[in-house]
Amino acid sequence: MNFSLYIAKRYLLSKSSNNAINFITIIAAISVIIGALSLFIVLSGFAGLKDFTLQFTSIIDPDLKAEPYQGKSFYISDSELKDLENIPDVVSFAKIVEERVFISFEGRNHNAFIKGVDSNYTNIHAVDSIVPLGSWFSEKTNQVVTGWGIANRLSIGVLDYGKAVNLYVPKPGKGQISSIEQAFNSVRAVNVGIFDVNEALNEKYIYVPIEMAQHLTNYEANQISALEFKLRDGFDEEEIRTSIQKVLGDKIILKNKSQLNDALHKMLNTENLAVYLIFTLILIIALFNVIGSIIMMILDKKKTLHTLYNLGATLKDIRRIFFLQGSLMTLFGGLIGLILGLILVWLQETFGLVMLTASLPYPMSIKIENILLVYVTISILGIGAAKIASSRITRNLVSN
Question: Residue 61: is its pLDDT beyond 70?
């Protein structure tokens, strides 16, 4: 093994008497470096986009959310609320009521969802950071906070007490309808703020006090749609899940941030996998240069190989020489490509070399898992290419 490794390093670092082979070897090494560099940059770019996208949803996503196992609501007693407060790692939790609502304002209409929240909601989420216009509503009032998309669609202003926002929720029941009052629960509300999270949520929600939401939905005082939890830093999710489930039983299911955005995570992960596979295919094509350079080196060193064979080197030793040469080329080339990629991604993160807008640099993120993925990928493919090339050495080639 030491003999094969010594010869392989000499072949890798020394120049051939044939300039064409030197040129082919340089092209092969550059292709490995560029392949590793490009794969790492693309994966870092997608990691940055993923973080950039998820940061907007995570602003209003709780650490854990309890939703009804069946139906649209569940009942919670005072004793259950007290037991939840006594769970050590639960910092705070808020009661939530959600329902589809019909919004009418100055002759313009829009379908959306009300999200009724109690006073603890501001302890879970930094609502001031998502309300660029106006302020958060006061408890037990007819004040609401509207999404930016809904406000633009309906031309809703802030603190315009002369123009009420009318909210309608269908009443449950059967039979003929003779009037709108019989068909809908309604509230005349005043918009006191506009929130901005992301396009989807801005078009979907209007925040209201929980009492207003329970009135519109005919819910009882202890009937809610969900509970949102803020947990202590460094919490053990499984332990807290067990504690909450023990209090609330099987009437609820618990979801963390990833599960609440399951569709978004799946979409981003699928895109990331597709890009990885495409660039891996390009990398495989680039590694054909490594195979070609090794085969050309084998032909160029044919006389030397014949001498080594006569001196006692086995066919396996000679094959190992070129296997190690190709492996070293890809391992060192991949390492150089990764180092260059890390430098470029760091420069983009620090100085914003590429801009999406005048004020927004293209988001990129350095992830340890991406570094390992790139290096493992190029190592496996490079070693495979070296194995294919070295297997072309036959006994007839070295003995004649």
Answer: yes
Rg (CA), the chain: 32
307 residue type, one letter: T
Residue type, 234: G
Nearest residue to 125 via CA among 151, 145, 103:
145
Q: Which helix (H) or strand (E) holds 351?
A: helix 315-351
pLDDT one-digit tens code per residue, 147-178 = 999 999 999 999 888 899 999 998 876 655 55
Q: What are the Cα distances from residue 49, in Å, to 58, 269, 277, 399?
A: 14, 11, 18, 57
- Note the pLDDT tens digit of each residue in 288-325: 988 998 988 888 888 888 888 888 888 899 999 999 99
pLDDT of 80 > 80? The answer is yes
- Distant-in-sequence, close-in-space partners of 103: CB < 8 Å, separation ≥ 6: 109, 110, 111, 112, 150, 154, 165, 166, 167, 168, 206
User: Considering the chain, what is the average pLDDT of its residues?
Assistant: 90
pLDDT bucket at 179, cuts 50 / 70 / 90: low
Side chain identity at residue 133, one-letter code: L
- Closest alpha carbon to 100 in 14, 170, 187, 26: 170
Cβ(368)–Cβ(44) below 8 Å: no
Terminal alpha carbon distance of the chain: 24
Find out whether 73 and 224 touch, Cβ atoms under 8 Å. yes
Question: Residues 102, 168: contact at Cβ < 8 Å?
Answer: yes
Pairing between strand 184-195 and 165-170?
A: antiparallel
Letter for the amino acid at 287? L
Are the C-beta atoms of 203 and 152 separated by less than 8 Å? no
Instruction: Read off the tokens for 127.
Output: 């609502």
* Pairing between β-strand 108-117 and β-strand 205-209 as defined by DSSP bridges: parallel
Bridge partners (DSSP) of residue 114 are 99, 206
Q: What is the DSSP string of 245-261?
A: HHHHGGGEEEEEHHHHT
